[in-house]
Design a protein that fits this description.
Low-confidence stretches: none
Strand content: 5-15%
Pfam families: Hydrolase (PF00702)
Number of helices: 10
Number of strands: 6
Radius of gyration: 18 Å
Protein name: Noncanonical pyrimidine nucleotidase, YjjG family
GO molecular function, one term: 5'-nucleotidase activity
CATH class of the largest domain: Alpha Beta
CATH topology of the largest domain: Rossmann fold
Length: 233
């Protein structure tokens, strides 16, 4: 087994609990924009529809089929028109308010701080994310994650998105390290696992929902809780 010197972490859905933080934000927006007054959907339906639409749009963004502005402009329009509102009924400012509020939420996955505190003295820790630079910085500060990491590599800063191996190669160059000295930890099989493999980097597939999807080829490691990293490292 390789001896690793640097660990590359994805942020959203791996350390920062995007779903929990997003749900809390959407609950706030549902009430602050009085969306119940339309009498077409409840808060749970709003959250489920947004989750579906946002996942779809992020997949298109990761594949380079839409840009950041299109993602932000479309997600609430598609969500709310999909729930029965007319385009002109979609509240002005709701997307901007989501973008402002959600990154300030602080939920992280269980054992995040304990595991990072354990790993920090032993390894160089870094973030590699397709998230937007300004937004990711706010998330990391709000959830007290920023102090663990030396480099934060975003798709904006290097011009490539995971799973493009050039994003990983850019990160390796910034850290000044060989791929065999690194281990990538992430939740997304395509972006994190396949992308790291293409760049010659070993991978840890973080699978907290215990998905039984067949993995071909298999990642180097698979974990269901971040605490399991300590058994690997």
């Amino acid at each position: 087994m390789r001896t690793y010197k640097h660990l590359l972490f994805d942020l959203d859905h791996t350390l920062w609990d995007f779903e929990k933080n997003s749900e809390e934000t959407l609950f706030t927006l549902f009430h602050s924009y009085n969306l119940a007054d339309f009498k077409k959907f409840d808060c749970d339906s709003f959250y489920r529809k947004y989750k579906f639409v946002n996942h779809l749009l992020w997949d298109l963004y990761n594949k380079g089929k839409i840009n950041q502005q299109e993602l932000r402009e479309q997600r609430f329009v598609r969500t709310l028109t999909g729930l029965g509102l007319k385009p002109e009924e979609v509240p002005q400012g709701i997307s901007e308010d989501y973008t402002t509020l959600c990154p300030t939420k602080t939920a992280v996955f269980p054992y995040t701080h304990e595991v990072l505190s354990y790993l920090q003295p032993k390894y160089g820790l870094h973030i590699i994310t397709n998230g937007f630079k300004e937004i990711q910085a706010i998330k990391m500060t709000a959830s007290n994650l920023h102090g663990y990491f030396k480099e934060v590599v975003t798709s904006e800063c290097c011009g490539y998105k995971k799973p493009d191996k050039r994003m990983f190669e850019h990160a390796l160059k910034r850290i000044n390290v060989k791929p065999e000295d690194c281990l990538m930890i992430g939740d997304n099989l395509e972006c994190d696992i396949d992308g790291a493999r293409a760049a010659g980097i070993d991978q840890v597939y973080f699978n907290p929902e215990k998905s039984t999807r067949k993995l071909r080829p298999k990642p180097t490691f698979e974990i269901h809780c971040l605490s399991e990293l300590q058994a690997i490292l």
